[in-house]
Amino acid sequence: MSSNYVNDSLALHTDLYQINMAESYWADGIHNRKSVFELFFRRLPFGNGYAVFAGLERVLDFLRDFHFSESDLAYLRDELGYKEDFIAYLKDIRFTGTVHSMVEGELVFANEPIIRVEAPLAEAQLIETALLNIVNYQTLIATKASRIKQVVKDEVVMEFGSRRAHEIDAAVWGARATFIGGIEATSNVLAGKRFNIPVAGTHGHSMVQAYKNEYEAFHSYAQRHKDCIFLVDTYNTLKIGIPTAIQVAKDLGDQINFRGVRLDSGDIAFLSKEARKMLDEAGFKDAQVVVSNDLDEYTILNLKAQGAKVDVWGIGTKLITAYDQPALGAVYKIVSIENTTGEMEDTIKISSTTEKVTTPGRKKLYRIIDRENGKAEGDYITMYDENPASEKRIKMFHPVHTFVSKFVTNFEAKDLHVKVVEQGKIIYDNPTLLQMRDYAKESLGLLWDEYKRSLNPEEYPVDLSQKCWDNKMRNIREVQEMVEEFIDGEE
Ligand SMILES: Nc1ncnc2c1ncn2[C@@H]1O[C@H](COP(=O)(O)OP(=O)(O)OP(=O)(O)O)[C@@H](O)[C@H]1O
Ligand SMILES: O=P(O)(O)OC[C@H]1O[C@H](OP(=O)(O)OP(=O)(O)O)[C@H](O)[C@@H]1O
Ligand SMILES: O=C(O)c1cccnc1
């Protein structure tokens, strides 16, 4: 073991600065001030038109268990030098806040609150890193999976990425996220055991190489694995691999369930068409052609354009590592805090980069759905005390280019936030993963195709209510006045 401390809690899975900030709040006696933080990202990943939220279950596990263990406290005191009085405060700290969140599988867009945390300031601060870590990764991978599934459409996708994932947790929780995003099965057996996801697979080249002979390898595999898919590209796909697979299937007949062949190298378009022809001619019309080898949505789209005959896509590296965009940039920002007289005051972060200016205040999030066509008109962020469902007509306008606007009538305003934690108590029962995946699929049905295409999708509207926008402008003006006063004072 490289450390003398037992690894028995996740509370220290945080950045040092969170603990330092918490210490200052505590020393100044403001650690229990009510605060509101929101978690959101500013830009959709992969140039996609939407993201699929995942990660809530692990966030709730983290909050349920949030405490500093004896070994955490000993490490903070003995190695990092935190003083005994602050350690005594940390010893009893638990998460006592209230959390609203989108549900897993929900479609989410830029600049809208995915999770809202209302908690004593120090508690809300100490959980930031873990929440972002969990949501950023899982949402990224669920989105990549959904994007791939949009291109694949009707065929099956199997997730094969464990060997390339960024370590064990990423493989296991990543497999879960791909399932929420629409993938049918994973090769990771631990993910199957932990999350009840279907597990599936074929066999590797090592098996053929071990027997040094495809006939023997396939024959032996088929004896023990009734549903068998033979990997046919170890020596020569068309001349040896596929004919041998067919021979074994014929020789063993009803004793086995010959499910098909897997191609893992070469020209997938050409080989899949040839494989299809050979299987059909041999009478195995139901046998599937499974393909793998560095696939992603771009290659798949291209292979489809070439007329590839594929039934199952096995996708590893580029899915589980989100190869073309390795991070989602979700952030966690304070939007409101209790003042010295016990009232809540909104707070804003100004930036010269307009997209980094936060939207102050405790807010709600609605999906506005046209009752006539069942499609989403956009998402609508309001102040907490607003309820668009009670209005006959709302004006939706672009939060920056405000002249771009429309009036919406005859709509349903779906509240996208669910209360999942109430004063520290987890009150949300996680649905099954299948339910989450179905929910994501159903939610995609609300979107016009223009938002779902993989290349240059239209921008889905995420608008602020007039009240929310006015509040933001007022906060910006107040900060500007404060800055001007400061500068005047200096001169
Ligand atoms: N018809 C095709 N059109 C476009 N891309 C293809 C086609 N067939 C295969 N590919 C992709 O091209 C890449 C081929 O990579 P590469 O040449 O390294 O594979 P290979 O040599 O066939 O197999 P190996 O994995 O053994 O190196 C893979 O990403 C594969 O998915
Ligand atoms: O290509 P991916 O999308 O990551 O899918 C997983 C890959 O893992 C296996 O091969 P492995 O990488 O072990 O060896 P190979 O590259 O020589 O086939 C399998 O044969 C796939 O090609
Ligand atoms: O089952 C398979 O075919 C498989 C599993 C992991 C990686 N590559 C392939």
From TrEMBL:
Residues 157-345 form the Nicotinate/nicotinamide phosphoribosyltransferase domain. Its EC number is 6.3.4.21. It catalyses: 5-phospho-alpha-D-ribose 1-diphosphate + nicotinate + ATP + H2O = nicotinate beta-D-ribonucleotide + ADP + phosphate + diphosphate. Keywords: Glycosyltransferase, Ligase, Phosphoprotein, Pyridine nucleotide biosynthesis, Transferase. Residues 362-471 form the Nicotinate phosphoribosyltransferase C-terminal domain. GO terms for biological process: NAD+ biosynthetic process via the salvage pathway. One of its GO terms (molecular function) is nicotinate phosphoribosyltransferase activity. Transiently phosphorylated on a His residue during the reaction cycle. Phosphorylation strongly increases the affinity for substrates and increases the rate of nicotinate D-ribonucleotide production. Dephosphorylation regenerates the low-affinity form of the enzyme, leading to product release. Belongs to the NAPRTase family. This is Nicotinate phosphoribosyltransferase. It comes from Sporosarcina limicola. The lineage of its organism: Bacteria, Bacillati, Bacillota, Bacilli, Bacillales.
